[in-house]
């Protein structure tokens, strides 16, 4: 008997269907010589400090740095039941082999290995490594199972990353919180990401707009002068040109070929989904994961934008099928060149994002709007990436009038190539009111040197603009390219494609960053608390370049080219240095005011790292941030929401996720604290009978 362990129940069901495993049991499925069970994300985690020594339950400077000599692990309480079920299956006498079928990546490897070790299992392990949950891909994957030992380096990198994050998070958070008199959550990736946002705000605050003036000539097209600092200069040229003619003194044309874009990896998809639809990075990841589990999209947590050679044969047929399935490609005659999307050297763990063959046959109209939007982007990118080059002719015309030169730029598209489906997609977005007309240089009329043109002149006033605030899209780009100036770096950036969205959400949840605006105009701003924290952290913890080097070494570790011992030795050395660089007690750091009054004892409720707690040591009132009820709705109680609950007993909750429908909804959450020792929440939709209760 072989035991298959997946990361989620939905994946277990997909594998069971592909292998004709039909008998449902408590916590697993059975049939065809297999048992199929699942984790629920992480079942096992690194132990908290107090498990190493009870004195660590209190935060004290004299105990720092906390560096375990031997790492301890524990079962996560909320998923303990599933761990016990999985452990029983692993230890069953009739199970002779375990197949690791968690997500094919660093984190999936860690999830399985920790559960396997914690269960005390020593049976042989094979690895299923697939990028699609289509039945054919699953069956093919089972024909080429690999020894788990081939992925030992990946596991070591994953474990090392988790241990490094534990060391930095535990020690730096405690150190700076104790020194500054307020809870300060510090993270290896989170802090330098926050530093990027704070730096951008400082640049905007320091920016002083400078006015400028240009003279524009209208002569059937628009030609513009250089910029002038003073209006008087521009007005003098405008008067001199008025009623005069301009001579064409130069025509320069350049023909350029624009190659098709690459296929999507996760980060580039997140950027475009934010730019086009206004989806956050986390929303895009959630929608992509849902499409993957519905077998409509390949594995989303990828950092590759190419495909392996063995996928080239069926790629053009897939593109043709998806063209037929998309609402914005009717009547188009497209040519596909599969070879330009293929490069074995650029594919590591996973290939670029693709729609699956099942997507062409599925009832796409039944998908939630958000998932369909994302699938449209992925399909569009497939059609573009395999398309013909776009050929453009750029023209620069120079005019002379009253002793001043003016320039006009124009553009003519000679061959649209891969941009054809982009244009029809824009029309599709325009019909939905999402996009406006494309902005591009105009076509200039046919001109000849020496030609005289009648003109009218006008002064145009403008001013220099500050750097733009970060959106999800632009911050993801900044995280991706952090440390890029370091020559020879293969793995650059803050975090990985799989973790960047979570980092942004954690910054918001901690109150260090807030989102302002809606949809595509939404920007990310550091809060006063976020700015204060960055002002107190040393360069080591806020430097994107430092964290990018760490990510580079983790990437090398995956390839077996760097040792965990060397990496963690560097982390421990950095922690020792931190002990002497943290600020002394800071009077300028503002203590976080109480959130509200405790409904049980009247004490002050304060926000802490893991939730909102009553300050009365004899009172156990708590609203935990990590709560299954909130997590099921993909929400977390924020400071503002808890304050409203404590003040009014109710608060508006927007954007709740429904696992049943895949859609989001708005509701009112009510606090029920009538029973001591127990906090309940109630959702109401202002309709009788529409309530949902939870402890």
Written description of the protein model:
This protein is α+β, with helices and mostly antiparallel strands and 695 residues long. The protein folds into five domains: 2-144, Rossmann fold, CATH 3.40.50.140; 160-205 and 469-578, Topoisomerase I, domain 2; 211-259 and 391-463, Topoisomerase I, domain 3; 266-388, Topoisomerase I, domain 4, CATH 1.10.290; 596-694, no CATH class. The protein is built from 22 helices and 26 strands. The strands form seven sheets. Strands 2-3-4-1-7-8-9 form a seven-stranded mixed beta sheet. It has a four-stranded antiparallel beta sheet with strand order 14-13-12-15. Helix 4 (106-118) links the parallel strand 7 and strand 8. Helix 6 runs antiparallel to helix 19 (544-558). The radius of gyration is 29 Å and the shape is globular. The two termini are 40 Å apart. Mean pLDDT is 88; it is low at 486-490 and 688-695.
Question: Key terms for this structure?
Answer:
695 residues; alpha+beta; Rossmann fold; Topoisomerase I, domain 2; Topoisomerase I, domain 3; 5 domains; seven-stranded mixed beta sheet; four-stranded antiparallel beta sheet; 26 strands; 36% helix; disordered C terminus
